[in-house]
Amino acid sequence: QVQLVESGGRLVQAGGSLRLSCAASGSTFSTYVMGWFRQAPGKEREFVAAISRSASSTSYADFVKGRFTISRDNAKNTVYLQMNNLKPEDTAVYYCAAALLPGNYDSWGQGTQVTVSS
Known about the structure:
Elements (H helix, E strand, L loop, with lengths): L2 E5 L3 E3 L4 E8 L7 E7 L6 E6 L6 E3 L7 E6 L4 E6 L8 E8 L5 E4 L3 E6 L1
């Protein structure tokens, strides 16, 4: 399994931007589909975005389309989530995850807290 460590979460005002990073180790990063998920207090974890192994394909939840961008650098074993025009409802713990088979995420990071103030 791959080990994942997220970073970049912090308190930001509504309308602001953040870039989350997720560093991978322990396995061949480029063999994994990578995803970002989030979990707000009292809510279930939800899908945010995903990116294919070669970065040729991305997918997004409807609520982040046009605001968030997922990218990856296979040379640096890192996946990113650029978040723009943040809203208070984006407040959550953000997790990155890795999947050898699309949709089958079996490696997870510990999460990074994003708090958006109004």
